[in-house]
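::Encoded backbone::
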Amino acid sequence: MLSTHIKKFNSLNGKLSSRASIDKFISKVGKPSDYPEVERKLAKELIDRLKAAKKVTPKTGKVRLSLKKKLDWSITKNEGGGHKGLGQESKGLDGIQPPPGFVRLDLSSTAAETTERTFRLPGQLGELLGDLQRFRLAIELTGESHGGKSEFMGQLIDGFADLGFTIGWFDLEHGGMDSKDTQNIVDRNIKPDNRKQIFNTGMIENGLEEIKANARQFDVVVIDSWAELDEHLNTSFNSLRKEFPETIFVVIFHLNGKGTTKGGTSADYSAPVRLKVHRVDDTFVNNYVQVLKNRGNRLDLAYRIHDRKVLPLNELLTEL
């Protein structure tokens, strides 16, 4: 059957083959005229591909075949490439020209390749956040006033620097390195060896446009806080992710009087990761970070900022 030959051909990718074994395969496949009319086009393509592979195979010895494109048996299931069922006919694959931005699933990256593009922050931060994908990654950090958002932000910055990332830190709330608060955050949370990768500013003149002008320079852009950009709506937050898909954005958002994100909830839906800082008491010792959203990772963990320790959320809550 042609389907058996197709499967065998596709399995040759990356395997050692000799000219004799390819000749034997061609002989088994036969001629296109040996197959039903609907299969002849694919049979011819199979034979042509085998002959092309034979040409690059030495007369003696073996070569490892590299098939840039596998053959698709599914197009022969119905004449014209259609599939009948469920009371309707599909339009089939013949003649489809994918619109810009579309990719056929069997030609896209494999799950293994996608996993290779993920990373994990070191230590307890990695335990909290799990495996992250850089593509369009944005971390939204919210929470009550004086809960430790900027302190935790400093710990995140240090974690990214541990991985060799460069960080552009828009420290707009505190005013940059002229502020003793910023200096204290650095002293408490950022290792001296990591500081050469971190660039801090406490000033911004053109709001979001200035963020965009610098976004491609850094691996990570940190904004403390969004309110300082004079962006009244959070819809622009998602546009940053789409315009700069290889830049990681870590942004602090304030809460309004109702306890929801100031400027609208669109950022809540856009950000792949949402974290909330809880202010437990005035000692700061018990304040913690809760994971509200983290695509593909756990939501049952919490992070105590003071001692940088990850705990199951229910366990932490029973200790308070």
